[in-house]
């Protein structure tokens, strides 16, 4: 039996992953969106604007890069819930192995960008 490069359900992340839920919450349930992100949408957007140049990856011939917004949301959910990468893969639609790269990279970027302003 030949192994697939990516599982079919992970390849369809845009259909059922957390981004679909977030679009719905943003349009109809701003308080639930704030609870999910653990910050207001304007604060999230500001943080994303600061981090985007540091966490954005390039698409390749083989696959599309996971957008900075999804990287940040997956990281925030990990930090807020303490869930394992294996568990988070089901709500994010991102493999546990990829989350194992994304989350530390994003945490490092958060620290580097915010340390001078918020940490002493």
TrEMBL record:
This is Uncharacterized protein LOC112689835. The lineage of its organism: Eukaryota, Metazoa, Ecdysozoa, Arthropoda, Hexapoda.
